[in-house]
Amino acid sequence: TSMAKGATAVLRSLSRASPGIRGGCSSGVRALSVGWSRRPEERPQPSHCFKGVLFGLWGVVAKPSFSRHEEAWEKQKMVPVGTFRRFATVEGGAIQKVLDGEIGTTEGGARMMQELMDEGVVGCETLTPMDLTGQIRRILEAGHVNAEIQDVIKCLRFDGMQTGLLCHQWQNPGKSISTPEQIRAKQDLQRHFNAIVESKDEKMGRLDPKFYRLAAARTGVEPHELIYVDSRAQHLEPAKAIGMAVVHSLKPESTVQELEELLQVPLRGFSWSEVSAEVNKAPSLSYT
User: Which pLDDT score is estimated for 28?
Assistant: First the structure.
């Protein structure tokens, strides 16, 4: 069709104009429109390749969900509105430890109670640890997969890149909340990763550079050929120390933009009619 020919012509001109494009496009340029035929000779030829991208779980691939329910609850308890959101961003705080699976929600409620008291948060005397435990559970149960980042992961896999998920625990939720909806979402998500590496299972801390070397080995890529994306600044330092490029993920939009700049390939705005079929054929992830 004329539309398909037009798209092909545009992509050819882009390919010629961008000889330095990186990203390991072993499957060819992604389809910009339904029915466009991908041709290997038209794909950008990288002058240097990042061969994989690793992602942290909470705050990047999955996000806790805050809603008006928390605001109403905070007003009812006479706690400043936004308290939960603020304490969720505290590095090494109770909520982050629950999200990482290091502690359960009951212990998380008790620790958060202490954090509120230590800071002297107005109204904290009206709360109990169980109040906070209940709110943490609601936030987790309403958590969701970040659709923009999931699309990026699908793009990377289609382009032949290695992808990995780094977390405290994944296969065995343990003390974490796991509703049926979350379990289904996890099953759908995990097929997009070549490897999932759990610090709990490996008996390694997330601040240990050896954990990131292991993750690189699991994906079969050298550290200097990997990008690591995480919302926790403290998790980025050991990855950077062994030679990985790092992206501090604060917002999905800026994260995607920074990855596009590093890889020099677009990672959004595509039709997935062909891409989904290719991704579904991808090899199963390995935990070994």
Answer: 38
* Phi, psi at 229, each rounded to 5°: -115, 125
**Which of 11, 263, 258 has the alpha carbon at shortest distance from 158?**
263
Q: What is the mean pLDDT of residues 239-261?
A: 95
- DSSP per residue over the chain, as a string? -HHHHHHHHHHHHHHHH-TT--S--TT-SPPSSTTPPP-GGGSPPPSS---EEEEETBTTTEE----HHHHHHHHHTT--TTHHHHHHTSTT-HHHHHHTTSS-HHHHHHHHHHHHHHHT-TTGGG--HHHHHHHHHHHHHT-EE-HHHHHHHHHHHHTT-EEEEEES-SSS-TTS---HHHHHHHHHHHTT-SEEEEHHHHT--TT-HHHHHHHHHHHT--GGGEEEEES-HHHHHHHHHTT-EEEE-SSHHHHHHHHHHHHTS--SS---TTHHHHHHTSPPPB--
pTM tops 0.85: no
Residue 282: Cβ within 10 Å count: 16
* pLDDT per residue as tens digits for the range 91-120: 889 988 888 777 888 999 999 999 999 999
CB of 200 within 8 A of CB of 166? no
Contact by Cβ (8 Å): 191, 285: yes
Count Cβ atoms within 10 A of the Cβ of residue 129 and give its class: 0-12 exposed, 13-18 middle, 19 or more buried. Answer: middle
pLDDT of residue 183: 65
Nearest CA among 41, 273, 262, 60 for reference residue 161: 262
Residue 102 CA to residue 128 CA, distance in Å, equals: 22
> How many CA within 13 A on the CB side of residue 214?
20
Q: What is the pLDDT of residues 171-181, one digit of tens each?
A: 654 444 555 66
The pLDDT assigned to 120 comes to 94
